[in-house]
Amino acid sequence: AKVINMSFGKGFSPYHDKVQEAIAYAASKDVLMIHAAGNDAADINYSENYPKKPYYDYVDSLSRKMFLNIGANTRNEGDELVASFSNFGSTEVDVFAPGNEIYNSVPQSEYKNLQGTSMAAPMVAGVAALLKSRFPQASMLQISEAITRTVQKHDILADKCNTGGVVNVFNAAQYRDWE
Q1: What's the pTM?
Q2: Burial status of residue 36 (CB atoms within 10 A of its CB: 0-12, 13-18, 19 or more)
Q3: What is the C-alpha to C-alpha distance for residues 144 and 68, in angstroms, rounded to an integer?
Q4: What CA–CA distance (Å, rounded) separates 47 from 43?
Q5: 164, 96, 169, 104: which is closest to 132 by C-alpha?
Q6: Residues 158 and 89: beta-carbon distance below 8 Å
Q7: Least C-beta-crowded within 10 Å: which of 6, 22, 109, 164?
């Protein structure tokens, strides 16, 4: 695997060090991890949400770049852009992606609208997979940078995530730092 969607999280981690080692190992193997930031409407710069984005003093900065935390946005603009349930954090969340009113399959061969950062994270994982398919020569680190450097900026996100924006697949596909 080159992209792992991590639509899970919790408020505690009895084996946090082991999880951080696994994240560092995956990063060293050129694996991009896309993690749902959580649905507690909390600033995860200050509240517990595991697995945590690797810290610079715990592992090298590569692991931090290869682990993207994803918040959920709505289709609305301005103050209503951030989904009411989405976790956020100016240093802990990397980008936002659509995560509200996502038409999805559910058991019994049915469909319904779902919401959550577990809907947003697969959006970003899909962008990463699309970019890797289109640009097979790109490393996953380069793809991570393409995703984070080409977001659509929104003023409301300036203090909600470290990129200040929503993932933008068109912009990311135009990124050419790997050629």
Answers
A1: 0.93
A2: buried
A3: 8
A4: 6
A5: 169
A6: no
A7: 109
Helices 140-149 & 117-134 angle (0-180, nearest 10): 120
3-state secondary structure of 157: helix
pLDDT at 178 over 90: no
Compute the residue count for the chain: 179
CA distance 70 to 86: 9
User: C-alpha distances in angstroms, 48 versus 116, 155, 169?
Assistant: 18, 26, 30
Question: Is pLDDT above 60 for 96?
Answer: yes
Give residue 121's region: left, alpha or beta (phi > 0; psi -120 to 50): alpha
Phi, psi of 112 (to 5 degrees): -160, 165
Contact by Cβ (8 Å): 148, 95: yes
Q: What does the pLDDT read at residue 137?
A: 94
Q: Please report the pLDDT score of residue 58 as a whole number.
A: 47
3-state secondary structure 103-123: EEEECCCEEEEECCHHHHHHH
pLDDT exceeds cutoff 60 at 150:
yes
Residue 89 to residues 4, 73, 106, 151, Cα–Cα distance (Å): 22, 14, 30, 16
Q: Using one digit for the tens of pLDDT, what is the confidence trace for 109-139? A: 999 999 999 999 999 999 999 999 999 999 9
- The residue whose two tokens read 């050129």 is 30
| CA 133-134-135 angle, 5° bins | 95
